[in-house]
Amino acid sequence: MKGARGDYNVEGGRWTQICRNMMTSLFGSPVNDEVDGPEIYCGRLIRPERWTRPVVVYHCYGGAHTSVVSAALHLGWLPRKGVLEREALEAVKPFDSLETRIGQIHHLGRDHRGVEVKAMGLGGGTEILWPLYSQLMDVIGWSSGEIIDCHTLPAAGVMLRVGGFVSLRLGLAWPARFLVIGGVRRAHAQLVGYVEGVERRLDASGAPG
After folding, report:
1. What is the mean pLDDT of residues 179-202?
2. Tens digits of per-residue pLDDT, 24-58?
3. To bridge 13 with a disulfide, which of 7, 21, 182, 187 should be the other Cys (CB 3.0-4.6 Å)?
């Protein structure tokens, strides 16, 4: 069965797709399920845009929930106190979007320090894929200083995980939305804690305030 965000039953095909999405994010080639092989990335190593240093990347499983909300909290798009309103969450792109792909990085913006803030999903391969991803960023020169990552999936409780499963695996965004929003609200304080931890690391790194 092919889910909303790729093949989740054939392990080899799934990891191939994740790696393709990762390379797409780094080198800028369009995600293309019909084209395979490194030739589609030729000529993409040198790009006019460069990432500033340090870079912050929040990552979770699918790249549509806890990582995106954490990035939005970091950027000040969502409040760190009080209730997270549904309208405010839905205004954050790509929150709960079926268009996200595991391995794809989302460039959300820069914080008041000028630090780039990103979000992505690494599926169940965080321990393998994150080191690979950060090394690739360093090799191609998109990052010349510290890369600060934060794994946000542990903040996801049962409600959010069920909602994410219904959205990610079944492609049913609207039926899952109330579970996802309820789960994010429960995870709010923990996600704020993650963001504040990242900011302390930024302060320690000497990033301009």
Report:
1. 94
2. 666 654 444 443 333 333 333 334 345 556 789 99
3. 7
Please indicate, yes or no, if residue 82 is contained in any of the structural domains: yes
Q: Say how many residues make up the chain.
A: 209
Domain membership of residue 37 (yes or no) is: no
Assigned domain for 45 exists: no
Q: For the chain, what is the largest distance between any 2 Cα atoms, rounded to a whole number of angstroms?
A: 50
User: In the chain, how many domains are there?
Assistant: 1
Q: Which residues contact 4 (CB under 8 A, 6 or more apart)?
A: 98, 167, 168, 169, 170, 171
Instruction: Please say whether the beta carbons of 19 and 128 come within 8 A.
Output: no
Q: What is the pTM of this model?
A: 0.75
d(CA 70, CA 142): 22
Full domain range(s) for residue 62 = 2-29+53-156+189-205
Closest CA to 201 of 74, 90, 80, 79: 74
* Residue 67, SS3 per DSSP: helix
